[in-house]
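Sample A.
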Amino acid sequence: MAKKAVKRQKKKASTGLSNAAVIAALISIGIGCLIAYYASDSDNNAQSRKRQPEESKQQQKSHTVLSTASESKEDEFWSLPCAPQDEESFCKGNNRCGRLITDALFDEKDLFQLVNMAKKWMVYGEGSGGPTILDLHSGALSLGERFIDVYSEVKRKKDEVYDADDFAVYNRIKNTVKAMVERQFHVSENSIYLTNPTFFSSITSKPAKTLHDEYWHEHVDKITYGNFDFTCLLYLATYNEEFTGGEFQFVNDTNLEGIQPRNGRLACFSSGEENTHRVTRVESGRRFALTMGFTCDKTKAIAEPDGKRAVAHADNA
């Protein structure tokens, strides 16, 4: 992707979005807002149509697996040359580009609580196609082909969903991941920040209803999401046990390099073109994951979610 495209996308994201603005955008646009970071313009839709033959092209490439679901990895890092970066990048300095896989960070109790937290809030909605998205920072939750504010829905129904321990686990896991990124990618301590969009995803084999349900297209996170300098994926379900299909794949001109999700597996990578990637179609079951984006631009940082306060201040009209 040309530097010009990166610059255009970063400029588009540079103004930032408040939580209220995020909700408004999500409700008006639909599921693709988070899957392709508010991909509502005609350029993105045209690109999606162009990529229809993409899967057949990928099948012609050689396929290796960096990490299977049956093996345990501990802090395995692959260093890569960084793709040419936009001169406005906030991550200049000693940081490096590459990929990290580890299965050694989280205990089963925290993982169990985290996935059950996602399920508790996701019960108020479900996407019409395969993906359902939950963003606890903004309150956005997929419902059909649009988004609702899950905090408003909980307040309207007077349900007792909020659990302080759930949010404590969420924030503790986020901080552990942040420290891992700082250490492995040589980023100075406290110089990266969680950013939008950070969200849970649940993907089933339901057929796509809109172009934005087509999560399987290859993309570059720095271009798709705008704010991302580092991407981290925490898997909350295991490949070939709780779901089939849904392999994560790094994509280059000749090869696909796969990561098979495993409960508790963390995959982090620099978000530039050096890590173009996709997810194959889920064939059965339900694939759970938490996507976390990190930025070196403090103005793009987002606060930790506060479910109790969000419900209390939600609009329940």
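Sample B.
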Amino acid sequence: MRASLGMLQVGSRAALHWRPHGVSKASSFKARQCLAQCVAARWETGATSPNGVGKSLEGGVYVNSYYDSGNIEIEDMGDASDIKLRIHPDPFCETDNCSHAMWFNFRMTNVAGKALKLHFSNAGQCSFPAAWQGYQACASYDLEHWFRVPTQYNTDSGVLTIEHTPECDAVQYAYFAPYTYNRHRQLIARTQAKPGVKLLMIGETLDGHDLNLLQLGTPGPGKPNVWIIARQHPGEPMAEWFADGLLERLTNKHDAVARHLLRDACMYVMPNVNPDGTWRGHLRTNAAGVNLNRAWAKPCKEDSPEVFHLLRVMDEKGVDMLVDVHGDEELPYCFIAGAEGIPGWSERMKGLQDAFCTAYKRSSPDFQTKFGYGADPPGEANMTICSNQVAQRYDCLAVTLEM
């Protein structure tokens, strides 16, 4: 059957009930009315992500993505062995001149022992179709342990197909193991409760989510300020998994390397720069359809408050080094993109970047420098990108880490 998609997205609904401190109920009501009208207008144009909910006519198989980080549209569920789906796109992104799509995350129930065949009809129109070649979708029964399932991509039809017979009544399928907004909140809560950690709530998003920055160590004269930020692109959850592991080690009082590092430097870690996009199930944009990693030249509160507030705090605290963590869709390598093309690139910066790469290769066999994007020609860096803007603005080592 054709499933109805007439549902208001959860993240937008949460924003309608949010009221800042000190704002009257009347003013807040008017603001919510205005926001509701904006959401309704965007819904009509397909700009607000609808979450897919559907049931098959035969066998009572359900599909549901109506939750934190969910994304799927249902085209046809007449036969459980021939389910047709679509990945819902992000809002239109002006800087990228497209509506990005790649991320999917949904749950299927009443499926134990059923031979499922799921067809993603618009896979060929997604942002990085070449990445489907050799790709294997992720699946989980308990949302903690994830495994790969057989997946095929037909380059002629542009259809991605998952074939899987679940062992349990319910199974979750996703583009990559999700790091949901709720898990992000748990990470912030347990980390800020540890000794030597300070939580800085630096602002709010368009949907009313907190922008959480963690300070580890104490700033002081001669101590460099090292910044690690992740998840500017919400459909790259591996970046926040990286931040999770980093924070676990930095807060381990028995780790001598972590103790030494925090004695000599102050660390600022922002595990999720784009909580709105995470909640809404976007691939690359925030609630306003902005690619945050193309907003660093002139961020504003109206459409990119995440970058606006982060850059404001960077100016206050100072930056001596930055690593912006991402996950590349097409290249199966761990590598960095440097700032070679910025106007202020110098031999000193080159030396710092080379030393960083040498140290990283020594400590992690996964990191390499043979494969990557290649360096920008002198003077041709895109200054709207975080690492380029930060390297130029603070005359420091700044890299994009891809994995």
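B remarks: The chain is about 25% helix and 20% strand. Residues 25-44 form the longest helix (20 residues).
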